[in-house]
Amino acid sequence: MRRARAMTGALGGTLAASLFLAGCGTDAGGTGPGPGPSGTAATAPPATTPAPAPSGSTPPGTLPTAYAFTPDPARVPRTAEEARRFTRAAALDPDSWSAGMVRHEPYEGGGDWPVLSADCAWSRGSLPDGVLDTYTRKTDVPAKDGKGRVLGSVTLTVHRDADAADRDMQDTVQQSFRCPDQNLGGGQNLRGLMSMHQPKESVLNADASMFESGKFTSEEAGGAGAPQGYVWTKSRIGPVVMALSVKGAQGYEIRDLLLLAAEGGAKALYRIELELK
């Protein structure tokens, strides 16, 4: 798990940078990093120059400079049955994501495909050709200490090959451009969505990654008059795509949602690697 913890830090930095970029120049899109604990802008510690490492050695905790994982072909799912076993084995449960998280109700689902209509409303359809399986688990931070309930979810999708998985990634960004406001159903809505692909050189724990931010509202949490932060990330390792969302609640800053997404995303990608190696 040492690598997973290191990747949490790497993904957290990537998500924070993405959110800042998405929030620049718009009031509808994501919110930039918030103030420090005292209400003033947070300041970074002064830069230090690390001592050079001995020749031929790697300093402890050093992160890789590029992603170099190659799935074992014998471990890549080739049938729907193999894909179903894979997604269940790799999926995060509440304790795997973060301490104190609990199952949402309903907790899990799969075998269907999200469809975004022309009027920007989501529904479910059958799996398209080339998708072997998709599986979702919903895990929440329970309401406590005057804070609301944060809604989290992780979806794993196994495509027939990496090219199909990459097209899945490309299509997602186009959806937010077409529909910056989206109806999730059940009284839930997203507003002011902005998406961006991560530069390949900045992604250290996947073949490709993207980020989305915006505002989330629900009838249960006060409707349109009580918008909360929303962050979403999607990454690909070979033919497997991981999508993770965090819907905010009263009492949570956007940085809290970023950290939760970074922790869950890093662990989910690590578990995918374990199943593919």
SSE arrangement:
Blueprint: H1 2-23, H2 80-90, H3 94-97, E1 102-110, E2 112-116, E3 122-126, E4 131-141, E5 150-159, H4 162-178, E6 182-185, E7 188-197, E8 208-218, E9 228-237, E10 240-247, H5 254-276
Antiparallel strand pairs: 1-4, 2-3, 4-5, 5-10, 6-7, 7-8, 8-9, 9-10
Helix pairs in contact: 1-5
Query: What structural class results from the helix and strand content?
Result: alpha+beta
**Total helical segments:** 5
Strands, count: 10
Give the SSE string. Answer: HHHEEEEEHEEEEEH
How does this structure look, described?
With 277 residues, the protein is an alpha+beta fold. The chain has a single domain, classed as Protein Transport Mog1p, Chain A, CATH 3.40.1000. The protein is 28% helix and 30% strand. It has five helices and ten strands, in the order αααβββββαβββββα. The strands form two sheets. The protein has an eight-stranded antiparallel beta sheet, with helices on both faces. A two-stranded antiparallel ribbon has the order 2-3. The protein starts with a helix and ends with a helix. The model is unreliable at 1-14 and 16-58 (pLDDT under 50).
